[in-house]
Amino acid sequence: MSIGIDKINFYVPKYYVDMAKLAEARQVDPNKFLIGIGQTQMAVSPVSQDIVSMGANAAKDIITDDDKKHIGMVIVATESAIDNAKAAAVQIHNLLGVQPFARCFEMKEACYAATPAIQLAKDYIEKRPNEKVLVIASDTARYGIQSGGEPTQGAGAVAMLISNNPSILELNDDAVAYTEDVYDFWRPTGHKYPLVAGALSKDAYIKSFQESWNEYARREDKTLSDFESLCFHVPFTKMGKKALDSIINDADETTQERLTSGYEDAVYYNRYVGNIYTGSLYLSLISLLENRSLKGGQTIGLFSYGSGSVGEFFSATLVEGYEKQLDIEGHKALLNERQEVSVEDYESFFKRFDDLEFDHATEQTDDDKSIYYLENIQDDIRQYHIPK
């Protein structure tokens, strides 16, 4: 049975800050952000876009009325939960109008959680081939104004419909996960922002990649030459490149050139969005599919990583005609039509988001009626605008 990604889409808020201007405001050489970590723009989330609304916006354009009748499970992967008990998946299930006899829940393990969600969906569909699973990775990456992690913030969501006989990617039965208890990045209960051991986090990422890749290569008897391209978790675009560089010398020159070139295509969107935690790997996958010429039957390798830490290397095979399922023009318009905000305004957005202070006059425009957004909070209950 062929199971995998049938449809995929992403959503980001309509605001961004220019990384060169942020660097200047922080009295840092702009090249530290533009070249050092490889980021050009950073998505800025208004308080009206939380993980529920962003997730619903990512999903709304890819699921049909027929899909809603067959979705048996909705999983939200996030480390930006808005409630300690109620799953965002329940709210998204309601907003999208999915049939009521469905399982809905959240998954958590830092930036890794969307990957076990997909693997769980795959196992579920093996037993129920007529059903579908909606997996949503939705996050707002926040480290604090003028913090060390500030330039690696971002916001966005990726939605994936997992089904039998998929139209985009077939998931192969070859995943290898690697777990190590390490405090490289964590957010204890009650902390507004995460705690980060920067150097340790980079080392833990590289180690997790090397361990999972080496075990994968041993089990599957594969080399880098077996892959058309590789996609990585992308907290910032230079991170995945460091991981790739750590093993690429094992490959022949042709493979090195192909994988290096493919990596740049795979992080193009991430460069203009920033870190979206659970969705970063899958935003990179969309970027690869939409910015590189590929063919059905080719194999893509994917490395997922979540601090704490869990890493996983797995592969997927492109389906013939996959490009018909992509929305290249829509995605480029989504990015290109965003509004730049000044560093001062970005800081105001950031504070309002922390304090849950609505300012629809500043943050909303007429075209927002076509999207989901957080309209109000009454008695600690979030109320969302539903597009007509």
From TrEMBL:
Domain Hydroxymethylglutaryl-coenzyme A synthase N-terminal: 3-165
Positions that bind substrate: G148
A GO biological process held by the record: acetyl-CoA metabolic process
GO molecular function, one term: hydroxymethylglutaryl-CoA synthase activity
Protein name in UniProt: HMG-CoA synthase
InterPro entries in UniProt: HMG_CoA_synt_C_dom (IPR013746), HMG_CoA_synth_N (IPR013528), HMG_CoA_synthase_prok (IPR011554), Thiolase-like (IPR016039)
Keywords linked to the UniProt accession: Transferase
Hydroxymethylglutaryl-coenzyme A synthase C-terminal domain span: 177-251, 258-383
Residue numbers binding (3S)-3-hydroxy-3-methylglutaryl-CoA: D29, Y143, K242, N275
Similarity field: Belongs to the thiolase-like superfamily. HMG-CoA synthase family.
Domain of life: Bacteria
Active-site positions on this chain: E79, C111, H233
Gene3D superfamilies: 3.40.47.10
Organism: Staphylococcus haemolyticus
